[in-house]
């Protein structure tokens, strides 16, 4: 059911404040898109939000994001209360970072995506897991282990895993490392 004009306006104002990177018109469009996605979704969350499948399809069709592991992790960064459902607030605030986030916000987002088990570190195993897909597309004569070795050089404290501090320092020195372990941001267009 469509919400009243008044409730919509209050939601738009609130989300424009919390998702700082969008203006009111953009927030309103994102809410309408959200409502359309919820209407399409016949899940137990109907009316409240949409599930992982609708989320994945949307990011795939809108931004060409195809990596299953990455998409699942991006879903997890959006789904802050971890209930399997993206609410309108999680949707707009998540897209604000994904599409218009500052470098700081994007560093945090990417780190959370790559930290598969949520322990605050990106372990070698997590690097392998994330890189497996992107490195399979390398020419046959390139050794995937070499790619990992290059990346391990950003492990500044040499503890065999990347802390947020290691990751942040590396990305600040070389912005291309932001998506070092797989594409978890939409491309520029």
From TrEMBL:
Residues 66-101, 102-137 form the EF-hand domain. InterPro entries: EF-hand-dom_pair, EF_Hand_1_Ca_BS, EF_hand_dom, Recoverin. Gene3D superfamilies: EF-hand (1.10.238.10). Signal peptide: none annotated. It comes from the Eukaryota. This is EFCB1 protein. One of its GO terms (molecular function) is calcium ion binding. The lineage of its organism: Eukaryota, Metazoa, Chordata, Craniata, Vertebrata. Transmembrane segments: none annotated. Keywords: Calcium, Metal-binding, Repeat.
């Amino acid at each position: 059911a469509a919400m009243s004009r008044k409730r919509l306006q209050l939601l738009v104002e609130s989300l424009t404040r919390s998702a700082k990177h969008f203006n009111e018109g953009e927030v309103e469009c994102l809410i309408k898109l959200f409502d359309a996605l919820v209407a399409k979704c016949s899940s137990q969350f109907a009316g409240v939000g949409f599930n992982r499948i609708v989320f994945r399809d949307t990011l795939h069709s809108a931004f060409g994001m195809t990596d299953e592991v990455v998409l699942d992790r991006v879903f997890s960064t959006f789904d802050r209360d971890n209930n399997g459902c993206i609410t309108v607030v999680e949707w707009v605030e998540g897209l604000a970072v994904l599409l218009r986030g500052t470098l700081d916000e994007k560093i945090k987002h990417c780190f959370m995506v790559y930290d598969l088990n949520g322990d605050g570190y990106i372990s070698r195993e997590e690097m392998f897991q994330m890189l497996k897909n992107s490195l399979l597309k390398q020419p046959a004569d390139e050794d995937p282990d070499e790619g990992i070795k290059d990346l391990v050089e950003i492990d500044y404290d040499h503890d065999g895993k990347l802390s947020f501090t290691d990751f942040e320092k590396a990305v600040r020195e070389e912005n291309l490392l932001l998506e070092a372990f797989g594409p978890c941001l939409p491309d520029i267009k």
